[in-house]
Design goal:
The protein is mainly beta. It is about 0% helix and about 50% strand. It starts with a strand and ends with a strand.
């Protein structure tokens, strides 16, 4: 793991892994630390915590068996979510203990997870599952619409996008539509047709409220998924 200076691309610090690993997931940052998850050749998962300013190793936490390390999420100072497929663990980095774990959808490769200081969102078999961050209990669900698809009928894989949070809305893109779902009412606020075939385009939201996703509009007002970037104003 290296920290690269954005001005001249020089390495500010470098940290060797605490064990031999086959691959690692994308890291997460908070105000003080960097967190990343790695899986060893023996399929053992490990969460490494590094001081992001000095590069000093703070701790390394064994989190058990894991097949595919996903992107770590830092929800707040005491809740770090580590997806290890087929489950995800929520860890308190202060006492280095696993608070709880929950199963991901068997067809979801740990890509669609999001959290804030109160809630944790993941993909279940039937839709979005919202859990209380403090204890992992299920608070509410949003079912996939009957005229859209989140899983391939040919291959058992998740074909939706990642999650994006903005104010009181969570966004997700499935095979045919982009959805905006109200986090208070748990209902769809709006959806936008994205094409007539399954797509796996991710989404991102800027701080000033612009949502970006892959594609461009064609003459039939459908999304041409072969090229381009689309932007939606959320304000």
């Amino acid at each position: 793991m290296e920290k690269i200076n954005g001005n001249d691309l020089s390495a500010e610090w470098s940290v060797n892994p605490t064990n031999s690993y086959s691959h690692a997931g994308l890291p997460a940052l908070d105000s003080k630390f960097l967190y990343y998850n790695s899986t060893s050749l023996e399929y053992k998962s490990n969460l490494t915590i590094i001081d992001k300013f000095s590069g000093e190793l703070k701790s390394s936490i064994d989190i058990g068996d894991g097949v595919s390390p996903g992107t770590v999420m830092a929800c707040d100072a005491i809740n770090i979510v580590v997806p290890t497929s087929p489950s995800a663990e929520v860890i308190n980095p202060i006492d280095n203990k696993i608070k709880y774990e929950f199963l991901l959808s068997k067809n979801e490769a740990t890509r669609a997870l999001a959290c804030n200081s109160e809630m944790l969102y993941s993909i279940g078999e039937l839709g979005i599952e919202a859990r209380n961050l403090s204890n992992g209990s299920l608070a509410w669900t949003w079912n996939f619409p009957s005229d859209d698809a989140a899983f391939s009928s040919i291959y058992p894989e998740y074909i939706g996008s990642n999650f994006a949070l903005f104010e009181n809305i969570i966004f997700i893109r499935l095979a045919n539509y982009l959805y905006a779902i109200d986090l208070k009412t748990h209902k769809t606020v709006w959806r936008h047709r994205m094409g007539q075939s399954a797509s796996k385009a991710n989404i991102a939201v800027s701080k000033n409220g612009i949502l970006y996703t892959f594609g461009r509009m064609d003459d039939n007002n459908f999304t041409d998924q072969t090229a381009g970037i689309m932007a939606f104003n959320l304000q």
